[in-house]
UniProtKB/TrEMBL annotation:
Protein name as annotated: 12-oxophytodienoate reductase-like protein
Keywords from the UniProt entry: Oxidoreductase
Gene3D superfamilies attached to this UniProt entry: Aldolase class I
Location of the region described as Disordered in the Swiss-Prot/TrEMBL record: 125-151
Signal peptide residue numbers: none
Keyword flag Chaperone: no
Domain NADH:flavin oxidoreductase/NADH oxidase N-terminal, residue spans: 4-360
Biological source species: Hondaea fermentalgiana
Cofactor(s) annotated in UniProt: FMN
Keyword NADP: no
Pfam families the record matches: Oxidored_FMN
Family membership: Belongs to the NADH:flavin oxidoreductase/NADH oxidase family.
Gene Ontology terms for molecular function: FMN binding; oxidoreductase activity, acting on the CH-CH group of donors, NAD or NADP as acceptor
Amino acid sequence: MSALFEGLQLGELRLKHRVVLAPLTRFRADRKTLVPTELMKEYYTQRATEGGLLITEATCISPEGLPDNNVPGIWTKEQTQGWKKIVDSVHAKGGLISVQLWHTGRMAHETMRDHPMADPERLPTVSASDVTAPGKTGGTLSGEIDTYSKPRPLREDEIPRLLEDYKRAARNAREAGFDAVELHAAHGYLIDQFLNDNTNKRSDKYGGSIENRCRLLREAVEAISEEMPLSRVGVRISPQFEGTMRFFGASDSNPLELYTTAIKTLDQYNLAYLLLTEPRWFGGKFDKDHSKDPGFSMGLYNPSKFRHLYRGPIIGAGGFTPLTAPDAVHNGHYDAIGFGRWFISNPDLVHRIQQKLPLNKYVRETFYKHGSPDGYVDYPFYEDADKSALVPQEKIGASLESAKL
Ligand SMILES: Cc1cc2nc3c(=O)[nH]c(=O)nc-3n(C[C@H](O)[C@H](O)[C@H](O)COP(=O)(O)O)c2cc1C
């Protein structure tokens, strides 16, 4: 039997298999209220399986740091009730669901100041320091503004308020019936902006030494744990190294030491799980045939550096294929595998992996199609798929040579 189909205990969560839905922002929440929609319920329910873990898209903990329209929130009653319908529907299929808690920090979009859910007192957005994110915004807002704006450094006396926001989100998650919450501390968002030294220039107790830069991570975990037991709390972080994936310009002069300390810090808590992003290079170039995206052919970075530092279960995500995922579990590199893109295009991915059935290809253009069912709930289940359009599992991934395109 494939290692992916053995049971697994993640804190209080009992999984029957190890194919996890990775968190995926899809912009299908209600545009004005940021309440989860019926469409989202259909999407998550399609992907729910008996004893399978779904992790939701990043979900805003407050009106601070709103990145765009159509992302869900979990700070209002209405948003919480919207999530409850999704949770109930996933539970009805025997599935488990964890909600990813998000504060984007400097990745907020300035035009969200005009959004009905914006709070003028929470503008401009905050970060560790006033370092503007490079590049262009990926959002599809009306805006003439397509670069990131300069954030305001969060004052030390405001941090208790931020921690209250995390607590409220965790409380609402519990009320909505979520099995777990996941702190999004990865990918260049607020907590990662505190971790990395090119975004954190502070001289107070949240800046300077690596221990200080890990302080907010620790305090956020502790704040959340006041509302959700640690055995139902996960954390995502995204180690990165020279020449690997960078997230929105956040980087560190000594990433190995930084992420070693962060992981050792998290090891002190008895978390349900740690989710690590594999920083596989993708170079921004994609093959026309997405099954050949270069990241699918590159090796793992994290296990050799971090596995021995962390005693609890670790989920890996980023560039796994149906063929490489079982090996990663079998070899003890990871305890479970989060799938992103292949789970977008295959609502029945768990079944297809188990039965070694070919997969629907994903369509990148519809990943972020605001409010639209296209490319969201209309990918066929295997029985209904046009078999000539499917990609065999063993054809996913290219040679390392082509990964260096
Ligand atoms: C459309 C899209 C949206 C994503 N949104 C999130 C998100 O909200 N939170 C998060 O932690 N990661 C997010 N990610 C990263 C995924 O969780 C995952 O790490 C990534 O897709 C790589 O895994 P894959 O190779 O299986 O696709 C997103 C990725 C994609 C493609």
